[in-house]
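Usage example:
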Amino acid sequence: MRNIRRALRITFLVVLALFLHYVLPQQDVARIVGTEIIRTDLSGVNRIFYAQADAGGQQLDTRDLRLINTVRKRTYLLGFVRGGDQTMVYRNEDTGWIYPPYFKFDSSDLQAEANDMTSTSANPEWVVITHYGWRIRWLTVFPNAISIREAPGPDYRPIPWVNLLVLAGLVALGFFLRAMWAQFRERTLDPIADAAGDRIDRAQAGAQERRGRFRRWLDSWKS
Amino acid sequence: MQFVRLIVILAVVLTVFYVCISLYSRSVRRERLEETWDAAPQGDAGARRRFIEQGMADYESSLRKRLILLVYVIPICLISLIMYLVN
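Running the assembly step on the lines above writes:
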């Protein structure tokens, strides 16, 4: 029983961590190589890794997808360790009103910015690309770029303030929910359980009493 | 349509939060009143009940209770801020 509970807890934590890793913004230092638009036919498998059609548009089976081709600085272990260069392709989609809650409606403007900041390897212009999501090659899934800003240089290390705030908020929410649950248990559930326990005790005592009376009546037939 | 969906989801979730937090806050207040009285009781059980009822009536009209409405205000401000920063 304890192992099952432990396995469930670990599974839950892993799923939560993966979800947060997918949804929270990450910042890459990259050099934009070019932009392009490809037509996409999403299947049921990779559909969940894409947002919907541009805000205000209609959802159809197939649509164009804006892509930003870059060369970025490779990162490991949540960005603590830096590696060499690596190509990376970002998609550039409106997240709209729903999920994930970035409320991004300016994909076209972002595409224009990306075009503006395109540079060559001879004369590189480094930028910080804020994005969320994963690159999954065997499903043709791209991370979604949220914003682009100038980077001071290729070795710049952005501090993930948003992630720190969100994680601190989640921890605070967790403690708050726990305090709420403890209060609910102390003030509402325990009194109910006590009352029920009392009633059960009384009922058992009554049954004992009746059985005692019956036994005494039986005994009165002896001798 | 998406906007309507967001509003509906937000309204439902925030209302659940609002109800939970108000119940929690009321419960904490009542517990603290009981503890205050039990630390220095001045009278019988009736006086204790009156003291607690009075304290709860004060709470019902307090600023603290109205502050729980921030549950609705903060997410809307947050969404506005995110929209401003991202777009």
